[in-house]
Amino acid sequence: xxxxxxxxxxxxxxxxxxNKIVExxxxxxxxTFTNRTAISPDRYHDVxxxxxxxxxxxxxxxxxxxxxxALVNKQTTEIDHSSTRHSVHxxxxxxxxxxxxxxxPFESSYNEETTETVISGVGVTYPGxxxxxxxxxxxxLPDGQIGKFVITGLARLSIQHGTYHRINxxxxxxVNTYDLTKLNTSVNEEVYFDKQKYLSNNASLLKGSDYLDxxxxxxxxxxFVQYLFQRFWSIELQTIIRPDGVYDPxxxxxxxxxxxxxxxxxxxxxxxxxxxxxxxxxxxxxxxSKTIDLSSVVHRCFTIKNEDQIWDATITALINKPFxxxxxxxxxxxxxxxxxxxDEEEEEEITYVFSKAFYTENINSMTVFERMVYDVIQNGxxxxxxxxxxxxxxxxFRAREELVQFYEICVYIYMIDKIxxxxx
Length: 424
Hints:
Layout: E1 3-4, E2 22-23, E3 27-28, E4 38-39, H1 45-52, E5 58-67, E6 92-102, E7 107-111, E8 116-125, E9 136-140, E10 146-156, E11 165-174, H2 177-184, E12 187-192, H3 195-200, E13 206-207, H4 208-231, E14 233-234, E15 239-240, H5 249-258, H6 261-264, H7 282-285, E16 301-306, E17 322-326, H8 329-333, E18 338-340, H9 356-359, H10 368-379, H11 384-395, H12 402-422
Parallel strand pairs: 6-12
Antiparallel strand pairs: 1-4, 2-3, 5-6, 5-9, 6-8, 7-8, 8-11, 9-10, 10-11, 12-13, 14-15, 16-17, 16-18
């Protein structure tokens, strides 16, 4: 069922005056523009999750202490909450890096009778999270002090199960080391808020080890993409190329799909314009193919040259340069413009990227890395222990031969994307 995105939080409406056309003597033209204000979170899950992250207000990052043993209704008034209750009577779930969207600046009011200054504010929490009266959060104030704020009021903004909540809060005190230690003695569990995972993964909060793994994997993905384009980029050909000078059109096709120009600042050119068998390579399986049967993947490869003439319509910078082709030797020989430059006397079959054991699914003969890749292909994830093994493995990528780096880095990107999706 389609859910309505709250209009006050995600404004998808346009200015009606921008759709109005006035022509002399004719009057207002009919507005035929239709705004889409409802989407199906099941059909457009990624789009829906992204929209939820663009509510009104300015985001602030806080350390949020959520009460776990609330003895009263969520709507208990502020006066019923004791800020001096001993810590043993309250258990908190500590959410690190929690994001609240402020609806406006902090407000300050002065009470002449009590000579007290009250600092308060109004914010919104993301769908799937249920705040309570008496929850507290710590926020680094502009003057360098840490403020302890308490939730004094809240309201649901939708009747939907997963709804935004508007919260009212006020500054309770400025905390010092003693106060912080005392507050943390009431924490019985710590989790981490990651906005991207939270909005795309059914409001899941991450445990410490998962959060650290997530941060490490995202950092390594960025490193690998940058390294790939810095180390293997050919200025002459305006594309990525193997360190031995051999062009691999299958890798280029894969990288075009897995990276964006925003990440890299440049887009690798596909020089082999007659490639029609990209679907048969292992990279096709890594870019969304639902096929997990490795027997359907072509794993024999040859290094060939294209002997196009200078007047051919398919002429590119690849003319007379070596490149990779996946096919049977007899089929390649049948193509008059392609010449195999590998040693034709070599009897041993050359397999592409992985070993023959990998493609024949002979697990006992696979390398440790191949077994990890195979697990991700089959299961879409790794166990926690294997995630740590994978991170330890990719740390040493610079110690490997450059040709191994070229292919393994491309595989790392696939692995990281799949593992990140599996972390909940």
